[in-house]
């Protein structure tokens, strides 16, 4: 794998101010973080990330392994290549750095742009961070980091607790598995896991960091889970009857919630406590039959579910964080596939494909949506999306003839034009490495390929994952 991108980002507009001397670096991060607006778990995490990045040294500079050559600066390590609009005077001022971290992390709810967070390196500093908050004397309630759902489909990927990506692909002979052998690094050979043949897959993290995988086909629904974070896996266990598609997401309290579609609508099942057992299956109150499902998370932490079949597009949402659900609401006409992501400011973005290309709908406020807008793109394509290191949404589409991608021209901004991304295939999904680079997995009847960012807007060629083909996906 090529050297890592710097994935620590800064929003413009922070005001430089003087920073006093502190007995401990963590105290400096605590006070400037609190002044910037971090509260509760968000403040503790902010301090831990800064300790992992710079040891809370406002003069810290890093150039190692930065491609292209560049400098990471200050408490939260602001990179001068990706953000030349940020002067050294701002980047090396503690309060300016904290203000920027507050904005880019959406008030402490989204730490995905920080590689140390993605790799779990901040965890070893959480005790020191809590002690700094205690010394500061601030215990205001505040949001913890949000856990965003991963894309579901015939191939899925998520980062484990140690930052390594794990990939699962559903072939005609069951589910196959590969994983990064090091953070941001190369890949293992594929291993066969058995399980449901020709399945749709979904993956999510338990509150303790253990990944859990779900697989459904027309007759069988099974799941398996890591026995400890970033470690081995259980065998397959029954999870219900068969169906069409599934999606999984983490509640604000850490409990996983699973939705499944079938011939009589959509059902859901949820953990009764974090890292624990499951409820019985319950009707989700209707929903499109045999629909494609995706799940996302609103800026306040409520889960939202989107369901699409050939005739109907509907969605429903939690009425409170970790709480109950709304009734289904109409979201548009039918289509082929969908993907959902979030802007850096938290607003959701929805893309749906159909016979005349890909259409787009987005939140204009927490409770309002735009109309559907055409974007062009491949007809009747499989869709996926992910966020670039600076928070711009990038969309990937593949059908039997072509693969293309589309990206925002700026943070929280409109989109450009579709560009070629390769030849045709059968499925596509995107995930982010611990360093923020997007990794895209594409499938065909020959196996599973991947393609990864080598720069902010440059990509590798398509290659086999782990130099082996993996399962054919038809």
UniProtKB/TrEMBL annotation:
Segments forming domain PLL-like beta propeller: 151-467
Q: Which UniProt keywords apply?
A: Signal
Please report a single Pfam family linked to this protein: DUF8189
Gene3D superfamilies recorded for this chain? 1.10.530.10, Fucose-specific lectin
Q: Where is the Transglycosylase SLT domain?
A: 31-116
Keyword Ribonucleoprotein on entry = no
InterPro entries the record matches: Lysozyme-like_dom_sf, PLL-like_beta-prop, SLT_3
Q: Does the keyword Signal apply?
A: yes
Region Disordered: start-end pairs? 369-388
Q: Where is the signal peptide?
A: 1-23
This one is known as Transglycosylase SLT domain-containing protein
């Amino acid at each position: 794998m090529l050297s890592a991108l710097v994935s620590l980002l800064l929003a413009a507009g922070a005001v430089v101010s003087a920073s006093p001397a502190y007995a401990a670096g963590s105290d400096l991060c605590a006070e400037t973080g609190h002044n910037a607006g971090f509260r509760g778990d968000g403040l503790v995490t902010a301090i831990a990330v800064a300790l992992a990045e710079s040891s809370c040294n406002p003069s810290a500079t890093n150039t190692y392994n930065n491609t292209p050559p560049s400098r990471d600066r200050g408490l939260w390590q602001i990179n001068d290549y990706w953000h030349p609009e940020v002067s050294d005077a701002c980047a090396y001022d503690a309060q300016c750095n904290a203000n920027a971290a507050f904005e880019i992390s959406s008030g402490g709810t989204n730490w995905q742009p920080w590689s140390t967070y993605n790799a779990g390196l901040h965890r070893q500093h959480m005790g020191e961070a809590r002690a700094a908050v205690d010394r500061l004397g601030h215990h205001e309630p505040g949001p913890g980091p949000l856990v965003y759902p991963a894309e579901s489909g015939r191939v899925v990927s998520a980062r484990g607790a140690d930052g390594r990506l794990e990939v699962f692909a559903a072939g005609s002979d069951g589910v196959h598995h590969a994983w990064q052998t090091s953070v941001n690094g190369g890949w293992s050979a594929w291993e066969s896991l058995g399980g449901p043949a020709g399945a749709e897959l979904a993956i999510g993290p338990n509150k303790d960091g253990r990944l859990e995988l779900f697989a459904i086909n027309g007759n069988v629904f099974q799941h398996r889970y890591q026995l400890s974070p970033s470690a081995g896996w259980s065998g397959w266990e029954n999870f219900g009857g068969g169906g069409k598609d599934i999606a999984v997401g983490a509640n604000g309290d850490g409990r996983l919630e699973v939705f499944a579609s079938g011939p009589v609508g959509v059902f859901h099942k949820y953990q009764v406590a974090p890292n624990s057992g499951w409820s019985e299956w319950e009707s989700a109150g209707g929903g499109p039959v045999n629909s494609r499902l995706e799940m996302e998370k609103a800026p306040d932490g409520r889960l939202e579910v989107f369901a699409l079949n050939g005739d109907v597009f509907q969605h429903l949402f939690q009425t409170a964080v970790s709480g109950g659900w709304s009734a289904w609401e109409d979201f548009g006409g039918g289509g082929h596939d969908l993907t959902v992501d979030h802007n850096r400011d938290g607003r959701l973005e929805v893309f749906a494909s159909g016979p005349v290309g890909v259409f787009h709908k987005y939140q204009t406020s927490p409770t309002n949506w735009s109309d559907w807008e055409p974007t062009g793109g491949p007809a009747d394509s499989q869709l996926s999306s992910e966020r670039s290191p600076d928070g711009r949404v990038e969309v990937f589409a593949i059908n039997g003839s072509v693969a293309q991608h589309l990206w925002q021209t700026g943070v929280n901004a409109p989109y450009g034009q579709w560009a070629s991304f390769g030849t045709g295939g059968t499925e596509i999904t995107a995930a982010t490495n611990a360093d923020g680079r997007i990794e895209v997995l594409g499938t065909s009847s020959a196996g599973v390929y991947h393609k990864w960012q080598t720069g902010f807007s440059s990509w590798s060629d398509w290659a086999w994952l782990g130099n082996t083909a993996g399962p054919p996906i038809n």
